What we know:
The chain has about 350 residues and is α+β, with helices and mostly antiparallel strands.
Amino acid sequence: MPPILHADADSFFASVVLRSCPALRATPMAVVVHGFVASSNYPARDRGVTGGMLVTDARRRCPGLALFDVPQGEVEETADALFDLFASVAGAVEPGSMEEAFLDVGAGDDESGDAAAVRAGAELRRRAWQELGIPVSVGVGRTKLMAKLASRAAKPDGLHVIDAATEQRLRSTLPLAKVWGVGRQTLERLEALGVRRLGDLDGVLPERLLDACGTMMTRRLLGIRDGSDDATVRPVSERTVLSSEGSIAGYARPDWTVAELVETCIRRVCKRAMRAGLGATGLTIVVRGDAAAASAVLATMKAVAPVPTAADDPSVWLRMAAAELARLPVDAVADAGSVRASLTGLRPLAGIPPTLF
Ligand SMILES: [Mg+2]
């Protein structure tokens, strides 16, 4: 199998902030959203400050920790630029989140494959730093799991290769706790069967594995054990939904109105759909509150296009959104904290007729 890359920006939100205050790179700093640490730089991590931690706890662990709000607009712009960069070095890009992706760089299946993948990864890292000011770590491996384990080993700001020989060893020695997507309960049930590492799976009857972790997880773990786990980079052009989120409250900008934020999100998501050559049949807008109960949904609006519609002209979607917003309850407008706009029913533009309305 040819090697693929997993590229992952290091402490992304923090890295975006640090571009405008590089003097803080060597000191502990963190980016905060709704009272929680969203991202911390490595000096802060060395002091025990990690993502998801309450800001009050982070301050206790690390007095003098510099705190910043999430620069939402700049974060999204940088993520867009990062994916433009991914697309320029890879034939296929499968996003994992806004700042990480699997990349198929066309590396060969033979011995030179690793070297070609490393060259592509090094070039990506160099350009991300020079053009965007963002450190990106890159892992090289023959399946998604191996590439992801490699990028984890590469951090911070590095490149790591899991070659074929290392991969073979990992397929028996890797602790299950390091396989992403295996929850704590599953780990505990497997441990009760004496399974801590991939190789331990061999000593357990299949029906006992099924009892412990269900059909899907059993299949996945056995696939990883025998080397048939997922190695296919699936590009955005195969997505059926794309979303963009933003908050009303700004960092270094005035607060937006709900309508302004909806427009910004729609323009962003249209841009992503266009880049992937996709048209859509629906638009969903979710408005959430802004206080501690940030997850509370205040309103969900859906609009459907009569025919699949290209995203190159956001005005179609903006008109639909405006009509929905006009029906939004006054309370929802007043209490809004964040907005998510999703284009749904995505499909490749080829074969979609031009917009008729
Ligand atoms: Mg990251």
